[in-house]
Amino acid sequence: MPDHKGNFTACSIFSGGGLLDYAFKDLFKIIWANEICKQAADSYIENVGSHLRIGDINSIPISEIPFADVFIGGPPCQDYSSSGKNLGENGERGKLVWKYVEIINAKKPLAFLFENVAGLARKHKMTLLQLISHFERVGYRVSWKVLNASDFSTAQHRERVFL
Per the residue annotation, which of 77, 96, 128, 131 is the catalytic one? Predict the structure, then answer.
């Protein structure tokens, strides 16, 4: 694969251990990332890079997040998961989907990728539709799909919604 790294920049929010970023790092120069969990951050730094800022995204002024061509992120999924409490956007973690929206609004990247559990497209579909509506109102053309990791040669059945 040709090396296109550096032609496009990316920022990552809710970066976790870096699995989403790992998929992007060969084609995008990831210039900034954020994760609150120290253990996940350690994995991120080991596998993706040291550009990670550890801490609560709510405590980081948006002005300190750089502009990038693309923003990627998967806000915490526990409140949208059938394995969790299913509180949706009423849960403390569930509210963080709106922080993602706030950052996208402020930074206005050329594109974004949002990832979460399939429950957001099922039981919490109203929140998903509100997210899509919001992004469309500020000028993004949005499509979404639930994908299963097992359809991509992985050894697990793991459904995720992508915007």
Answer: 77
The CATH code that applies to domain 78-162 is 3.40.50.150
Tell me which architecture the domain covering 1-73 has in CATH: 3-Layer(aba) Sandwich (3.40)
Residue 4 — pLDDT band, cuts 50, 70, 90?
low
- Supply the DSSP string of 73-131, one letter for each residue: E----GGGSTTTT--GGGSTTTTHHHHHHHHHHHH--SEEEEEEEGGGGTTTHHHHHHH
Domains 1-73 and 78-162 share a fold: yes
**Is 77 part of the annotated catalytic residue set?**
yes
**Which position has the token pair 């922080």?**
99
* Strands of the 70-73 sheet, one edge to the other: 52-54, 29-35, 9-13, 70-73, 111-117, 159-162, 145-148
> What would the pLDDT profile of 57-102 be if each residue is shown by its tens digit?
999 999 999 999 999 999 988 877 888 777 888 778 888 999 999 9
List the chain domain ranges: 1-73, 78-162
Contact 109, 31 (CB under 8 A): no
Which tokens go with 131? Answer: 């997210």
